C-alpha cells in the first residue's frame, strides 16, 4: 500500500521511478518492522525472581533461544558453587538450545550465562574474558555483588516473576 501511494505521488509529481526507489521502500519498511518487533520484545522482557538465603533479586533475561528455554524451566531449584573466584555455577536439568546465539561472549559482573560445553549455568560476580561457548542469558537487576560473599554450595530458587 505504501509502495502504491509513493508510486502514484511520484508519477503525479512528474518524477521518475527506478528499481532503487522500490528497494529503498522495502528496506525502510523492513527496518521499521524490525524496530517495532524489538520494541515489543523490550516491553515483554522475561523476568525472574532469584531467591538466595530468603533474599530476593530480580533478573531480566534477553530474548535469545537459550534464555527462553531457561525461562520455561521455572520454577527451578539449584545448588550454586564457586568457580575460579569469578562466578557461581550450577548444573541444569537439561541443555538449552543455543540456535542463533553468538559462538561465545565476555561476561560482566551480574550477568547470567549458559556455558554450552558443560551445559551449566553461570552467574558472574567478576568480569570475565571472552569464552567460546558462553551464552549470555540476562542479568541481575541489582545486588549482584552479594554473590562473592555466598558460601560454597548454596541453595537457590528461580521462579518466573509475574508483574
Automatic annotation (TrEMBL):
Entries under PROSITE patterns matching the protein: PROKAR_LIPOPROTEIN (PS51257)
Transmembrane in keyword set: no
Key word Cytoplasm present: no
InterPro entries according to UniProt: Cyclophilin-like
Domain of life: Bacteria
Signal peptide, first to last residue: 1-19
Limits of the Cyclophilin-like domain: 50-159
Keyword annotations from UniProtKB, A to Z: Signal
Record-given protein name: Cyclophilin-like domain-containing protein
Organism whose genome encodes this protein: Enterococcus alishanensis
Amino acid at each position: 500500500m505504501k509502495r502504491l501511494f509513493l508510486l502514484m505521488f511520484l508519477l503525479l509529481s512528474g518524477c521518475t521511478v527506478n528499481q532503487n526507489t522500490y528497494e529503498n521502500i522495502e528496506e525502510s519498511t523492513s527496518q521499521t518492522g524490525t524496530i517495532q518487533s524489538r520494541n515489543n520484545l523490550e516491553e515483554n522482557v522475561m523476568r525472574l525472581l532469584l531467591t538466595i538465603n530468603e533474599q530476593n533479586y530480580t533478573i531480566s533475561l534477553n530474548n535469545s533461544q537459550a534464555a527462553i528455554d531457561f525461562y520455561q524451566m521455572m520454577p527451578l531449584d539449584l545448588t550454586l558453587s564457586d568457580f575460579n573466584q569469578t562466578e557461581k555455577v550450577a548444573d541444569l536439568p537439561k541443555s538449552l538450545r543455543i540456535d542463533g546465539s553468538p559462538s561465545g561472549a565476555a561476561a560482566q559482573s551480574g550477568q547470567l550465562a549458559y556455558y554450552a560445553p558443560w551445559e551449566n549455568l553461570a552467574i558472574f560476580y567478576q568480569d570475565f574474558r571472552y569464552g567460546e561457548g558462553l551464552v549470555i542469558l540476562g542479568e541481575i537487576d541489582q545486588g549482584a555483588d552479594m554473590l562473592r560473599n555466598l558460601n560454597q554450595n548454596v541453595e537457590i530458587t528461580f521462579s518466573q516473576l509475574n508483574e
